[in-house]
Design goal:
Layout: H1 2-17, H2 26-38, H3 46-78, H4 81-86, H5 94-104, H6 113-119, E1 124-126, E2 135-138, H7 144-160, H8 167-179, H9 181-202
Antiparallel strand pairs: 1-2
Helix pairs in contact: 1-3, 2-3, 3-5, 6-9, 7-9, 8-9
Organism: Methylomonas denitrificans
Protein name: Transposase IS116/IS110/IS902 C-terminal domain-containing protein
InterPro entries: Transpos_IS110, Transposase_20
């Protein structure tokens, strides 16, 4: 996916140098590049069209390869009981479920869910004195890859929550109003990491938010 992003940015950059601008995003390049290549009235030379056509073919090959790898990850996820159960958690897809199931195992390495969330750097640092407790940003310690996967999945859930009315979405909507999008995404990632640990260590199914 990183290779595809780099290719798309390169295509957009080369087109911009020739006076043709495209909006950001791989879908925009997929949609517009064939039309640009077919347009005989634009400023592209014959050699430029040939090179851009080669890059478009590269893009299609990368799309096919990504679909193949996604299919393999999905099959791998379905082969494991724990990773299949993890898919019930909002914001957890096949890739995250598979890696988390492998990493957590039975959850024996941690005494409680907060300890596991802390190992991923998702627990806020504290600066407290007397009766006053001040929560700072997350520590960002531990496994940055797993933390990134959890936060990206949480972002997708928070992004769509405004169009839904289930209890979790309503809870997230209220939090967004008070704390802002980014803090809520991290809070949900923290919550999901604790939920996954509890599901693994206690052998239970996902329990959706009910209120």
């Amino acid at each position: 996916m990183a290779e595809r992003t780099g290719l798309v940015n390169q295509i957009r950059g080369f087109l911009s140098e020739r006076g043709i601008t495209l909006p950001q995003g791989v879908n925009q390049v997929r949609r517009h590049l064939p039309l640009i290549l077919e347009d005989a009235e634009n400023t592209l030379s014959a050699l430029s069209r040939e090179l851009f056509a080669e890059q478009y073919e590269q893009l299609k090959l990368l799309d096919d390869d990504i679909k193949l790898q996604d299919s393999r990850i999905h099959r791998l996820c379905q082969q494991n009981t724990l990773s299949r159960r993890f898919l019930d958690v909002p914001g957890i897809g096949p890739l995250t479920a598979t890696i988390m199931a492998s990493e957590i195992g039975e959850g024996k390495g941690y005494a409680k869910s907060r300890d596991y969330a802390a190992s991923l750097g998702l627990v806020p640092r504290q600066h407290s004195s007397g009766d006053k407790q001040v929560l700072l940003g997350i520590s960002k310690r531990g496994n940055s890859y797993l933390r990134t996967l959890l936060i990206h999945g949480a972002r997708a859930v928070v992004k769509c929550c405004s169009r839904k009315s289930d209890p979790l979405s309503r809870w997230l909507q209220a939090l967004v109003e008070r704390r802002g999008f980014n803090k809520v995404a991290v809070a949900l990632a923290n919550k999901n990491s604790r939920t996954l640990w509890a599901m693994a260590s206690q052998g239970r199914a996902y329990e959706a938010v009910t209120a």
